[in-house]
Structure prediction request, 152 residues.
Amino acid sequence: MNFKTFLGTLALTTALAIPAIADEDPAIAARQGQFKLFSHNFGVVGGMAQGRIDYDAAMAQTAADNLFHLTRVNQTRLWPEGTDAQSAERTRALPAIWDDLDDFVAKFAALQGAVENLQSVAGSGLDELRAGVGQVGQACQACHEVYRAESS
Ligand code: HEC
Prediction:
């Protein structure tokens, strides 16, 4: 192989290496997108609870309704084996999730319950909203503490 052929081979190898990155499991990006939507809506009610945004019953209700529907998305295809932070790139999902899936599912169910409560109180006044937001925030945190890495 002369030098030119070698360079050609090198370029080809590099070109072939790029799709390998794109090959990463789309479930990872999908579940991260889901969490971004959680935050985008939780930020509205959280901001009202903290006094950073003026309380607005209709706006609070819409955010809580969105969270309700978002947390009803079936999770089955978002957490395939082999997509933990030790086996895959660009994910903060800890392997512990797959060691104790029942507990992970229970923590997700706790979030669903807290969000259902938030949905029923969000439009009823700031004090009611605050209590509901606190409960949801705790459910987010309880799962992150055990199952989400600090950084990827
Ligand atoms: C049952 C567990 C669980 C619950 C409940 C949970 N999360 Fe997460 N969250 C995770 C895991 C695991 C990741 C890491 C996902 C990954 O990187 O693949 C994550 C990632 C995130 C991210 C980063 C997304 C990104 O761009 O990479 C945000 C933001 C987030 N969660 C917000 C929330 C909010 C807000 C709530 C509550 C309303 C919540 N989460 C509830 C487990 C949970």
Notes: The pocket of heme C is lined by residues 28, 31-32, 35-36, 38-39, 42, 91-93, 104, 107-108, 111, 136, 139-140, 143-144, 147-148 (CB under 6 Å). The chain has a mean pLDDT of 91.
